[in-house]
Amino acid sequence: MRLLIALLLPWLAFFTIGRPIAGTVCLILQITLIGWVPAAIWAAYAVSQYHTDQKIKRALKTGAFR
């Protein structure tokens, strides 16, 4: 769901992962039509990194790396 939001409303995706400053910067970038594509790519990358970070935290919590 977050990936779809990242493609349609990139600035909103940053707010859903707890990065409001990046969301504001992304909104400013998204205001121009040319900036929409880089904003969507940036948001999709940030969402994928967020999911990766969550998986690492869960793995460390369960002791999978010990």
Automatic annotation (TrEMBL):
Transmembrane segments: 28-48
Compartments where located: Membrane
Keyword annotations from UniProtKB, A to Z: Membrane, Transmembrane, Transmembrane helix
Species the sequence originates in: Stenotrophomonas daejeonensis
One cellular-component annotation, GO: membrane
Pfam families from the UniProt entry: Pmp3
Name of the molecule in the record: Membrane protein
Assigned protein family: Belongs to the UPF0057 (PMP3) family.
